[in-house]
Amino acid sequence: MMPLCHDAINITCMNSSWSSDIRASLYSLMVLIILTTLVGNLLVIISISHFKQLHTPTNWLLHSMATVDFLLGCLVMPYSMVRTVEHCWYFGEIFCKVHSSTDIMLSSASIFHLSFISIDRYYAVCDPLRYKAKINILTIFVMIFVSWSVPAVFAFGMIFLGLNFKGAEEIYHKHVNCFGGCYTFFSKVPGVLSFMTSFYVPGSVMLFVYYRIYFIAKGQAKSINAINLQIGLEEKNGMSRNKERKAERTLGIVMGVFVICWCPFFFCIVLDPFLGYTIPLTLNDALSWFGYLNSAFNPLVYAFFYPWFRRALKIILFGQIFQKDSSRCELFLE
Predict the structure, then answer these.
(1) Distance of CA 5 to CAs 83, 88, 89, 109, Å?
(2) Contact 27, 39 (CB under 8 A)
(3) Do residues 50 and 330 make contact, with C-beta atoms less than 8 angstroms apart?
(4) Under a CB-based contact definition with an 8 Å cutoff, are residues 27 and 85 in contact?
(5) Contact at 8 Å (CB) between 45 and 92?
(6) Secondary structure in 3-state letters for 177-201
(7) Angstrom distance (rounded) from CA 299 to CA 27
(8) 3-state helix, strand, coil in the chain (%, to 5)
(9) What are 80-107's pLDDT values in tens digits?
(10) Mind listing the pLDDT tens digit for each residue in 181-216?
(11) Neighbours of 142 (CB within 10 A)
(12) Are 50 and 328 spatial neighbours (Cβ–Cβ below 8 Å)?
């Protein structure tokens, strides 16, 4: 007989049947993901907050995204870890709703930030002369406000009003809902809406924008190569090709990490209602950890790619951040 989450109640959910070794391995892996998320994003937050040279509109957008990912690692992942390994929720029904809402909000907010960062990069690469005029502190503030507010209203409204299982109430209460469980369930319309709002729309913006950046940057590189060839600057021509390859590699990593991390989860969410809810809830729960990985990788992909962040990291790790006037260190040449 399967063990129950709460022995005294007959309608309780079933506890995990995994062995102690498997549980220990899963806990170790998830703790590693949580610590990587917390440490990486905290370093980005400290770097941008401390060093005055990094106080630019673009970097405040990175700072906001790192804050979202840090909060996801701090407020959401530890409780999700217990639920995933134990298959039980021990923290109460109200906190289940708070946790689910916060999970959806912060995960969506992280994706929104990625989308807005792609727009910022588009203007930096494709319209550099008007970049500072268009992407100013007010524009960044609007991007940050939208990235936080829209996911918050959507997530908390969806969960606390019970809109996520609207149209499938009978299935939810008979076959999904049980005492000691806390799984986010979506019926057809809310599932499609969640897919569109949290993944498809911001993801499509990212894909289109990076597609445009790639081809415009490639065209610019060809023009520079042609000019260098005409005046015989072979060295600069080689440098241009290196920069082009670096840009291609960076854009490929950006989109690749995003798609690999979030695609499986969101496609399960949107397809499950149309497949008669045949996808196990534990599988959806496990796939959510692939999405969490995106928050662990964001500092590596979007911050540590830049040489000045590596310089800031070195100063922080060697304790030089506590020296007088360390905030005025030159991390890169203006």
Answers:
(1) 11, 6, 8, 32
(2) no
(3) no
(4) yes
(5) no
(6) CCECCCCCCCCHHHHHHHHHHHHHH
(7) 23
(8) 80, 0, 20
(9) 999 999 888 999 899 999 999 999 999 9
(10) 888 889 999 999 999 999 999 999 999 998 888 888
(11) 11
(12) no
Q: Which structure tokens are listed for 314?
A: 């070195």
20-270+279-328: CATH homologous superfamily? Answer: Rhodopsin 7-helix transmembrane proteins (1.20.1070.10)
pTM: 0.89
User: What does DSSP assign to residue 89?
Assistant: -
Question: What are the boundaries of each domain within the chain?
Answer: 20-270+279-328
At residue 11, does pLDDT exceed 60? no
**166-185 pLDDT per residue, tens:** 888 888 887 777 777 888 88
Task: Return the half-sphere exposure (C-beta side, CA atoms, 13 A cut-off) of residue 312.
Answer: 25
Q: How far is CA 204 from the centre of its chain?
A: 15
Tokens found for residue 150: 């829209």
Residue from 110, 293, 115, 103 nearest 182 by CA: 103
- 136-157 pLDDT tens trace: 999 999 999 999 999 999 999 9
Closest CA to 291 of 317, 322, 260: 260
What pLDDT does residue 245 have?
A: 61
Contacting residues for 193 by C-beta, under 8 A, at least 6 apart = none
Instruction: Determine the Cα–Cα distance for residues 51 and 309; give it in Å rounded to an integer.
Output: 10
Specify which residues 14 forms β-bridges with: 4
